[in-house]
TrEMBL record:
Organism: Hydrogenophilus thermoluteolus
PANTHER family according to UniProt: PROTEIN GLCG (PTHR34309:SF1), SLR1406 PROTEIN (PTHR34309)
Family matches, as InterPro entries: GlcG_carb_metab_protein, PduO/GlcC-like, PduO/GlcC-like_sf
Protein name: Cobalamin adenosyltransferase
């Protein structure tokens, strides 16, 4: 008896419609806070699905927002938690921030459904706390649980 091997897998992903809605909700929250942001949502592979830039948001924050989403999706953790993970290991503390696109400060959240990472959202333009609050508002608006 021969067993057939699986040749493909099904990976859950955030939809492009939900990604766009999360961006819109993050921008609405930023307006309430009186800040201007860039917000990005990527799928579980880190590929950009949606992006919004408010007029007047910092230009350098465009790539930072995208990279926060990428980092959160890749590690499955809020970006604010990464520094705590590398803080006591000198090699990691020096090396990880040198890797392109990895962010070790707040503003990026993984998007999870049923225990699986389906994407990431990243916000840049305010303080790390304001950025994360905007990202959390984006997740809440489309029905995702906000990670700890």
């Amino acid at each position: 008896m021969t067993m057939q091997k699986e040749t493909t897998v099904t990976v859950p992903q955030i939809s492009d419609e939900a990604a766009a809605a999360a961006c819109a909700a993050a921008v609405a929250h930023a307006r309430n806070l009186g800040i201007r942001i860039n917000v990005a949502v990527c799928d579980a592979t880190g590929t950009l699905l949606a992006f919004r830039r408010m007029h007047g948001a910092f230009l350098h924050s465009i790539e930072i927002a995208i990279d926060k989403a990428y980092t959160a999706a890749g590690f499955g953790l809020p970006t604010r938690k990464l520094f705590d993970l590398i803080r006591d290991d000198e090699a990691l503390r020096l090396g990880i921030p040198q890797r392109p696109r990895l962010i070790v400060f707040g503003g990026g959240l993984p998007i999870c459904q049923d225990g699986a990472v389906v994407g990431g959202i990243g916000v840049s333009g305010g303080s790390a706390e304001e950025d994360e609050a905007c990202a959390a508002a984006g997740l809440a608006a489309v029905g995702f649980t906000i990670p700890d």
